[in-house]
Amino acid sequence: MNHLLHIALRSAWNRRLTLGLTLVAITLSVAMLIGVERLRYEAHRGFSLSISGTDLVVGARTSPVQLILYAVFRIGEATSNIGWKSFQDIADNPLVAWAVPISLGDSHHGFPVMGTTPDYFEHFQYSDSRRLSFVKGQPFRDVFDVVLGMEVASQLGYVIGDRIVLSHGMGEIGLLAHDDKPFIVSGILAPTGTPVDRTLHISLEGITAIHLNWVGGVPMHGFTIPGEHVRKFDLTPKDVTAALVGMKSRAAVFKVQRQINEYKGEPLLAVMPGVALEQLWQVVGVAEKTLLAVTSMVVFVGLSGLAAVLLASLNERRREMAILRAIGARRRDIFLLIVSESLLVTLGGIVLGIILLSAASSALAPWVQANYGIALQPALVSVAEFKLLVGVLVVGLLAGLLPGYRAYKMSLMDGLMSRI
Amino acid sequence: MALAIEIRDVRFRYPGAAADCLDIELLQVEAGARVFLYGPSGSGKSTLLSLVGGVIPVQQGTLNLLGKNLTHMRPAKCDRLRADHIGFIFQQFNLIPYLSVMDNVLLPCRFSSRRQQQALAGGGTLLKTARRLLSHLQLEKSEHIPVTQLSVGQQQRVAAARALIGKPEIVIADEPTSALDADRQSAFLDLLLQECAEANTALIFVSHNRQLAAQFHHEIALPSINKAVPIEDVI
Fold first, then answer.
1. What pTM was computed for the model?
2. What value of ipTM does the predicted structure carry?
3. All domains in chain B, ordered by first residue
């Protein structure tokens, strides 16, 4: 067996150009396969951790997935709000450590505007208990201060001190502008890879202020309140869209969830974000699975190339096989010689692919983190990846079977007398 | 005297062929004998050598190799028998191009532990034994040349060293000199005969050049013993 491996290695080295090109193809396809698997895993993890450290998300009664969609991802709109009194009752619950209200409904160039309290910047967490941090500036202090997510700032080219006008409602076109009360950029958040990047954060008082002279979704005709006068009004909101709630002890989650769901004042819904996010991933995760299927096909193509190269090499190796047979190689040895060559090339492709991927991901990790908020861990091979690699090796083995069998049949036909 | 090879009533027909290509009533080669086998093309030479080597199965009759009957023997066992007891030298392109001269010579010792043991029996290492053989065949300076850069004559002598290493009982040389010019033919033949005699190896030397037959104990003309070939077909 040992000597066969030696012969296989030397023979492969002798044909290093064609096999080398095949090796490159397999290396790239393996790097791609495992790279996609890693991105898929990290994207899923990032998605699951779009919000963390929050034990309950509370909104008006609706479906859990819909509540998460608008409260965390700012997709869609709440059918109804929760009253300020209800929110205060939740915040006053002795088991609750903190509660942050959020108020949605306005937008700016398609980016959602969210009203909240400064506590949001303190309590909101994502990924592995990471907190929001400011690249520039600070949280809003004034009624007309706004804090931008990274993507908002970079796409629209805003810097600290810029004045911006918010629009009423969601969407891009035909929205009524709150142009009588412009906001001033007070801070810009570091990228998170979560919907926070796409959000403009203002105070709850700001939300109330820009709607002071509005009735039924439109400004009152002929009646404006200049921005400098709004501070004379009571800016306490009447209602909010949802609330993020943290427990003093995680064990209390179920109890508080039940209390909120059975709240007498109005119909409320409290969901644990992790559970609802997982439900949501079942829907959006299909794209990642498709991508994985496509890259699997790429690996398959690479290994088909290997089979083709091995088959094509058989004719020029006929003489070599006849000599080995004459010296005493069994027919099985001839078969093994070819199959071990395909295994060697596949194994080489796997090892080189992993090395290539590790090098590429450690080089690109800071960039990916900065732009997409996906944290690429410089990991060895995970269990899921290992399973994929075993699959690749099995397909590589199968790719060697046909050429191996051909060589076996050929050496039977040729006997000792291959004339070339 | 013991027989190295004994063939009785062996007939062979390739699958799908209309007629036999080999039909030999009796062919015997004694141990240590030097036999010249006259085998022009079309006389069934290739088939006979493949049968003796155990590369193709004996269909009918008896073929004894060193007292072991190859008929109905399992292919893997035939392969083992060939590796242990027979050295082959072909007309040309004998060497594996990507292996060194030394690796080529030592190949039989990799496939047969018997050959390896016998190569070590003289004392010393495999390398020493191989070098001794190479120097007997006037190849001491060629060890480190890539085999693809050796002359045809050198290649044939490396092939002879490979056939002889580990002292197999039988060496079959199939037209080993036909690619050489006349001077080199006789020089090669002298070396081969000398080495076979030293190892007490039976040599079956196949050629269509009957001038070389003088140096052998026996001459067997394959066309005359192979009844499957009409005499007038062979010139």
1. 0.74
2. 0.88
3. 3-233 (3.40.50.300)
